[in-house]
Task: inverse folding
């Protein structure tokens, strides 16, 4: 079953600004555009899966930030389900022997998250794993930015995930990556872009060729900063007009705005 949290095209036309669409999807999905990533080249990327019947299914991405903690989007986990995290994965339908499977013991959703208003922000959650993962060449911790850091316009970044290749399009089983340079807040919040929908606690990236799509939610925006990859965003939403809409870049929760909250939860 597909689950799209979409506003109708009619509603989008009536309103002055296109409305956001969640990127979680209780089915398969892929990054729009981009390319298949080299296996295990983003070793902090995880697949968040839910139990249905006797099987688990991919719904969102996430980032391993400590050996016992994963960061993802609040809208991915604000429904009570049995969750598991798969680490060291590339093809979500094949077991290559590199995977680690961890159940989730606790879900911490930001207290200000409102499931009826994704554009209100706070789309971030932490998952406590039932045990600590083993770090190796295929499973590594994502590096987080210092609190408050904001990247400049056109800073190089990549979105990664198992999201849809296009709105309503074909699916791929392999992890994909797409180049999405940062769009600074002044540009992204201008009337021809996202306008007041985007908040300062968010990061915009892309808006020209590639984008995130259903199934990418919760996954990382990996940005090159001083020669290393830093996870600056949690994939949150795209325009209801489609996953790859011109001047409607993919919007991410800005990780640097929530460092204090995360440290308070993880201790």
Result:
């Amino acid at each position: 079953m597909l689950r799209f949290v979409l506003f109708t095209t009619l509603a989008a036309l009536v309103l002055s600004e296109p409305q956001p669409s969640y990127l979680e999807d209780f089915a398969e999905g892929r990054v729009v555009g981009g390319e298949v990533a080299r296996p295990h080249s983003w070793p902090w990327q995880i697949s968040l899966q839910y139990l249905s019947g006797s099987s688990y299914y991919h719904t969102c991405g996430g980032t391993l930030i400590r050996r016992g903690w994963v960061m993802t989007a609040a809208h991915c986990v604000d429904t009570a389900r049995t969750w598991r995290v798969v680490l060291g994965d590339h093809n979500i339908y094949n077991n290559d022997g590199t995977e680690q499977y961890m159940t989730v013991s606790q879900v911490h959703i930001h207290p200000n998250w409102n499931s009826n208003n994704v554009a209100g922000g706070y789309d971030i959650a932490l998952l406590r794993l039932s045990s600590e993962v083993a770090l190796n060449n295929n499973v590594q911790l994502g590096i987080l930015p210092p609190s408050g850091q904001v990247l400049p316009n056109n800073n190089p970044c990549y979105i990664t995930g198992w999201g849809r290749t296009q709105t309503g399009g074909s699916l791929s089983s392999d992890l994909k990556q797409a180049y999405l340079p940062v769009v600074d807040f002044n540009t992204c919040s201008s009337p021809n872009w996202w306008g007041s929908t985007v908040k300062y606690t968010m990061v915009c990236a892309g808006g020209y060729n590639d984008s995130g799509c259903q199934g990418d939610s919760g996954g990382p925006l990996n940005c090159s900063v001083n020669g290393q990859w830093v996870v600056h965003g949690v994939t949150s939403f795209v325009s209801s007009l489609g996953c790859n809409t011109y001047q409607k870049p993919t919007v991410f929760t800005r990780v640097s705005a929530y460092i204090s909250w995360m440290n308070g939860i993880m201790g």
